[in-house]
């Protein structure tokens, strides 16, 4: 048997390659300097639709801070957790994200807590609900730049402002296109439980064992959802909501400020906006609630230049930028002063969102990490209840399961 | 007798008509989605969902939007070039690798050949999602993450385990050819290059075609490697990134235009090469 | 001629050490020494460089990487207040995930070196034996030459196998290891460390509360894989027979029509199908406008209907490939055999049943098995068409149409329970591996290889 010449070669190559791998890994774990003398490079992830608006603001920021160089890249705020956790070192220094990912991202060490100085700024300039949204375990983890909640868009030609004040008149006089039966129903209809007095993760939204849907009131809500199946004023619509609105198949639609321009396209001058109606679960009219979301700039904990990154995040969430975002993308400001601008006050959608953002109209979306267990469970229960797949005698059992799953720490 | 003949003929004609009818119906079903994509790419009005098939207004602006990249976020031409580079390189490398592997495993005899065949069979059966993150970090350690080279490397590395079809083909070439050449004093390298390869055109084309098409279709793994490097995206990641929740409605027609543009070269290639493709797959066991 | 396995007797390494001279003895410590002593400079150099490089790496990174593997890290990432900057500053800690990955890489490197070390000893022994027999030693040129002949397989396979080692085996080992850790949404790096937990996750999946999701999903995965594979095969063969019916004109055109669909990337055709079959999509719209239905058919939103739709859409994707291959087989059929059968009075159906079909089955068997395995792992169709939906209140993190593999994807991307995902991955792996090895050893089509 001859010697394996080639195996030797192979071994050599493999060894050197592997050493490259390991050397590469070894040398990474070194510095995280916050050197402020030379030029600092900051990368920021912006939702594609917002890139144009933000680029202008970034230019102004760079002019004011010549030592900071900012690269704007298109990102996806909804995937912030996924994208940042894949490789925090390569992720952006500053990124857009929804506030409900703050809990999980902070616990995983992906978010930089906002420094004392900026914490004061954030608290001084924003509405309370936005501050609640970015606070996690008594620390502020992000810079709010907008609030959003679902509102009721409707067709003025078919429904009057009085008609849309209660669910019953709304669905008896017109047709509401909404989604009970498909994925995503959890976002729209979970707050029904809170409308009826139940809690999701406690009153503050941070108590892991604070969900109490499995009571009398919770069953009332499921009963009500099951009844909507036979309500001819409720049309199950998901992806086609906008085209249904346009074709006149439906007259109203629950969605957030992000749909404003699309609805305008669909309804033209007949577009009207209102806060959510009241709803009757059997014991009198109560305000139908929605989830309140806060749009946030997060700072990556692994950033090489935390000072510069926070400066930028602060700039991108200040009054001036919020004004630009409102004008160009319809983002409803979280900044108190920006909310007071005449243009914002005159905007019907913004006005409704601002009404909705008060605590009697909405619930700040909880940010406990355990909510990832809760979502799919809730989604399927709303879907199945609406479709009549769950017997009313099983409601208690299903809600018990939701509550136990929602508090599950680990598997 | 004559009557029977006529009956037989009539029946044959009926059968033929029936076959034509079935084929026509099936063709319509198969072509419908494709025609619909093409029609959508010329549609001017509406969003992702419209309750009709034929657009009310035809336009070329979807294509124009794609090619000029007015928004600066979707550099389609660049993506197209990237994909072309990746797929050509992958095609060359993986064809080389697959053919080498399958030839060695089919024609040469060495220790551990049979165990290796079995191990290779099952190695690819692990769901790839979590290994993707691992591969990403390996590439990052090699300083390659986010580059086209990384894609080429990974796609080609995968080719080492996809040798079964080609091996089946080589198995059918008679050993006698090799033996007579060896008697004439040829070494194995010469047998491989001068005798086996010239006989293997169908399988080479098949392998190359399969390898070439891969990069046009992969949207998950490529995205993990590329991350936020939009300029290095391939068309598959790029087009898929247009279909996020917030953009799906407004960019749907642009998306279909992109689909048409990438389907054209692959379709042409496929139609042109289908003869070899069939031979490559079947000849392994037919002869 | 091809079976030249060495049958000669070698002395053991212990004998080599006892009997050999200084160069042989030193080869046990300094790799390649015997080659140097016998003027095989190049070869000796490669051994030596490998050893020195390895030791250098071992001291610099290797020992650390291997030692960390035991605990997967002990130092947590933290924030320390820096009064100069007026803010917290990051103190990096250990990253369990990277420790695990590169620890496994380090083990692989050690294995490679052990292999090299044995090769080195064999080389020393070979030199020793040749010299004892009084034969000339091969020169570097001889060695290179043999790479194109006796050891041609090494020339062909080395580079590809390197790729396999780094891009398939290493990630695979990493993935398998995760199943034995508590890498879930409560222990996400970089801030948190995760550690070894033994078989805890397995018992959780098989008997714990995850089991109520696992077994139904497994059931649907198997049903789907079998139905999808068999239906594509069956209808593909029928289509090929139709096109190849005697007297049908424009055969090539018909074929091309169906082949068109193979050339459209799957993610496109599936996204389009999803749109077409939407409750508000064109298909429902047309049926309504024709007055065939009054309410939208819930193609993808009703659990049973969705399963059915998925299988039908999969037919759309899968039939052309089978058709193409079957056509190739039909055209290559032994015509004499068929004519002989006709002479004997066999009708068309009999010919099909006893000649055509067995041949098709024989040729297609390996690809059918591959398709079956592929369907067990068919991510695209489910993910792009229904995303696993519609939701199912009885499951944990899965929908009614989720396969094991898409559920696994959800677990990594949405709930970030990597450990559970890995367990499911291992179970899928065992399932497919056992099946395909069984098929490999029990079907005729594989036997000749």
Automatic annotation (TrEMBL), chain A:
Coiled coil: none
A single Gene Ontology CC term: ATP-binding cassette (ABC) transporter complex, substrate-binding subunit-containing
Highest taxon, organism lineage: Bacteria
Keyword Signal in annotation: yes
One term of GO molecular function: maltose binding
Signal sequence segment: 1-23
PROSITE patterns to which the protein is assigned, alphabetical: PROKAR_LIPOPROTEIN (PS51257)
UniProt keyword terms in alphabetical order: Signal, Transport
InterPro entries xref list: SBP
BP GO annotations: maltodextrin transmembrane transport; maltose transport
Family statement: Belongs to the bacterial solute-binding protein 1 family.
Name of this protein: Maltotriose-binding protein
Organism: Companilactobacillus kimchii
UniProtKB/TrEMBL annotation, chain B:
GO cellular component: plasma membrane
Pfam families: BPD_transp_1
Entry's Gene Ontology molecular function annotations: ABC-type maltose transporter activity
Subcellular location: Cell membrane
Bilayer topology: Multi-pass membrane protein
Gene3D superfamilies (UniProt xref): MetI-like (1.10.3720.10)
Swiss-Prot/TrEMBL keywords: Cell membrane, Membrane, Sugar transport, Transmembrane, Transmembrane helix, Transport
Predominant location: membrane
Superkingdom of the organism of origin: Bacteria
Keyword NADP: no
Keyword check for Nucleus: no
Protein name: Putative arabinogalactan oligomer transport system permease protein GanQ
Taxonomic path: Bacteria, Bacillati, Bacillota, Bacilli, Lactobacillales
Automatic annotation (TrEMBL), chain C:
Protein's organism: Companilactobacillus kimchii
Lineage summary: Bacteria, Bacillati, Bacillota, Bacilli, Lactobacillales
Protein name in UniProt: Maltose/maltodextrin transport system permease protein
Family named by the database record: Belongs to the binding-protein-dependent transport system permease family. MalFG subfamily.
Keyword Ligase: no
Stretches assigned to the ABC transmembrane type-1 domain: 218-439
Membrane association type: Multi-pass membrane protein
Role, per record: Part of the ABC transporter complex MalEFGK involved in maltose/maltodextrin import. Probably responsible for the translocation of the substrate across the membrane.
Residues annotated as transmembrane: 41-59, 97-119, 155-180, 222-242, 254-273, 308-330, 351-373, 418-440
């Amino acid at each position: 048997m001859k010697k394996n010449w080639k195996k030797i070669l192979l071994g050599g190559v493999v060894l050197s390659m592997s050493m490259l791998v390991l050397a590469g890994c070894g040398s990474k774990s070194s510095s995280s300097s916050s050197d402020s003398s030379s030029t600092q490079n900051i990368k920021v992830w912006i939702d594609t639709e917002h890139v144009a608006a933000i680029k202008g603001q970034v230019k102004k920021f760079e002019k004011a801070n010549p030592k900071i160089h900012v690269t704007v890249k298109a990102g996806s705020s909804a995937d912030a957790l996924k994208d940042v956790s894949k490789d925090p070192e390569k992720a952006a220094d500053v990124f857009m994200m929804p506030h409900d990912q703050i809990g999980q991202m902070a616990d995983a060490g992906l978010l930089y807590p906002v420094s004392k100085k900026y914490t004061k700024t954030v608290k001084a300039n924003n509405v309370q609900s936005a501050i609640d949204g970015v606070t996690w375990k008594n620390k502020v983890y992000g810079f709010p730049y907008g609030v959003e909640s679902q509102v009721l868009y409707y067709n003025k030609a078919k429904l009057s402002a009085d008609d849309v004040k209660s669910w019953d008149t709304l669905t008896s006089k017109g047709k509401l296109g909404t989604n009970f039966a498909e994925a995503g129903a959890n976002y729209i209809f979970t707050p029904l439980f809170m409308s009826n007095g139940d809690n999701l993760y406690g009153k503050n939204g941070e108590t892991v064992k604070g969900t109490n849907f499995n009571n009398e009131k919770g069953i009332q809500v499921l009963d009500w959802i099951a009844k909507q199946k036979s309500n001819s004023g409720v049309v199950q619509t998901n992806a086609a909501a906008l085209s249904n609105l346009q074709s006149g198949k439906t007259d109203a639609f629950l969605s957030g400020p992000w749909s404003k321009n699309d609805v305008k396209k669909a309804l033209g001058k007949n577009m009207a906006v209102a806060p959510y109606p009241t709803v009757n679960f059997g014991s009198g009219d109560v305000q139908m609630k929605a989830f309140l979301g806060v749009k946030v700039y997060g700072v990556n904990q692994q950033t090489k230049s935390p000072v510069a990154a926070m400066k930028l995040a602060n700039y991108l969430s200040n009054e001036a930028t919020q004004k630009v975002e409102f004008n160009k993308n319809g983002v409803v400001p979280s900044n108190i002063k920006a909310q007071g601008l005449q243009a914002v006050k005159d905007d019907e959608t913004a006005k409704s969102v601002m009404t909705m953002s008060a605590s009697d109209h909405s619930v700040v979306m909880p940010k406990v990490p355990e909510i990832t267990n809760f979502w799919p469970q809730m989604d399927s229960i709303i879907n199945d209840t609406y479709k009549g797949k769950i017997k009313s005698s099983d409601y208690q059992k299903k809600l018990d399961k939701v509550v136990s799953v929602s508090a599950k720490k680990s598997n | 007798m004559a009557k029977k003949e006529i009956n037989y003929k009539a029946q044959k004609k009926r059968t033929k008509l029936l076959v034509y009818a079935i084929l026509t119906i099936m063709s319509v079903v198969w072509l419908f989605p494709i025609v619909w994509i093409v029609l959508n790419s010329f549609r001017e009005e509406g969003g992702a969902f419209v309750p009709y098939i034929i657009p009310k207004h035809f336009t070329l602006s979807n294509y124009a939007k794609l090619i000029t990249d007015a928004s600066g976020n979707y550099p389609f031409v660049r993506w197209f070039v990237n994909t072309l580079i990746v797929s050509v390189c992958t095609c060359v490398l993986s064809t080389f690798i697959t053919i080498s592997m399958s030839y060695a495993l089919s024609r040469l005899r060495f220790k551990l050949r049979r165990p290796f065949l079995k191990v290779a069979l099952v190695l690819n059966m692990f769901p790839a999602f979590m290994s993707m993150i691992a591969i990403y970090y390996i590439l990052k350690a090699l300083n390659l993450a986010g580059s086209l080279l990384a894609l080429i490397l990974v796609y080609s590395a995968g080719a080492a385990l996809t040798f079964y079809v080609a091996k089946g083909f080589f198995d059918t070439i008679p050993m006698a050819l090799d033996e007579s050449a060896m008697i004439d004093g040829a070494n194995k390298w010469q047998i491989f290059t001068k005798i086996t390869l010239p006989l293997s055109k169908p399988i080479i084309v098949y392998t190359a075609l399969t390898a070439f098409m891969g990069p046009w279709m992969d949207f998950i793994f490529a995205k993990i490697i590329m991350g936020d490097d939009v300029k290095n995206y391939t068309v598959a990641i790029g087009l898929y990134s247009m279909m996020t929740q917030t953009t799906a409605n407004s960019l749907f027609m642009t998306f279909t235009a992109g689909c048409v543009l990438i389907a054209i070269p692959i379709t042409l290639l496929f139609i042109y090469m289908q003869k070899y493709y069939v031979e490559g797959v079947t000849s392994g066991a037919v002869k | 001629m091809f079976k030249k396995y060495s049958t000669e007797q070698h002395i053991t390494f212990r004998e080599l050490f006892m009997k050999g001279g200084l160069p042989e003895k030193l080869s046990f410590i300094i790799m390649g020494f015997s080659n140097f002593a016998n003027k095989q400079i190049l070869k000796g150099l490669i051994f030596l460089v490998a050893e020195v490089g390895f030791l250098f790496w071992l001291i610099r990174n290797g020992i650390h990487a291997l030692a960390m593997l035991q605990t997967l890290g002990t130092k947590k990432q933290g924030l320390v207040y820096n009064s100069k900057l007026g803010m917290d500053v990051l103190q990096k800690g250990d990253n369990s995930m990277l420790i695990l990955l590169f620890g496994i890489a380090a083990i692989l490197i050690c294995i490679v070196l052990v292999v090299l070390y044995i090769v080195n000893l064999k080389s020393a022994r070979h030199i020793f034996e040749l010299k004892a027999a009084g034969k000339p030693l091969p020169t570097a040129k001889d060695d290179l030459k043999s790479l194109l002949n006796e050891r041609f397989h090494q020339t062909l396979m080395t580079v590809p196998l390197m790729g396999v080692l780094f891009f398939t085996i290493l990630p695979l080992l990493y993935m398998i290891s995760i199943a034995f850790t508590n890498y879930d949404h409560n222990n996400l790096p970089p801030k948190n460390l995760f550690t070894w937990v033994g078989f805890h996750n397995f018992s959780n999946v098989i008997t714990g509360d995850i089991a109520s999701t696992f077994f139904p999903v497994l059931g649907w995965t198997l049903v789907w894989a079998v139905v999808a594979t068999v239906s594509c095969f069956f209808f593909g063969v029928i289509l090929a027979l139709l096109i190849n019916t005697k007297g049908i004109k424009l055969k090539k055109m018909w074929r091309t029509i169906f082949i068109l669909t193979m050339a459209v990337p799957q993610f496109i055709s599936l996204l389009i199908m999803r749109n077409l079959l939407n409750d508000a999509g064109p298909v429902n719209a047309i049926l309504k406008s024709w007055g065939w239905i009054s309410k939208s058919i819930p193609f993808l939103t009703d659990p049973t209907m969705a399963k059915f739709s998925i299988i039908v859409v999969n037919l759309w994707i899968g039939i052309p490939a089978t058709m193409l291959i079957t056509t190739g087989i039909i055209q290559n059929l032994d015509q004499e055999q068929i004519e002989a059968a006709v002479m004997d009075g066999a009708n068309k159906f009999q010919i099909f049943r006893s000649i055509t079909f067995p041949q098709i089955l024989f040729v297609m068997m390996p690809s059918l098995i591959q398709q079956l395995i592929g369907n067990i792992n068919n991510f695209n169709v489910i993910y792009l068409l229904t995303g696993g939906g519609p939701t199912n209140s009885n499951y944990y993190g899965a929908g009614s149409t989720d396969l094991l593999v898409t559920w696994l994807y959800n677990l990594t991307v949405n709930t970030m329970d990597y450990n559970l995902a890995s367990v499911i991955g291992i179970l899928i792996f065992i399932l497919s591996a056992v099946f395909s090895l069984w098929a490999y050893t029990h079907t005729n089509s594989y036997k000749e290889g």
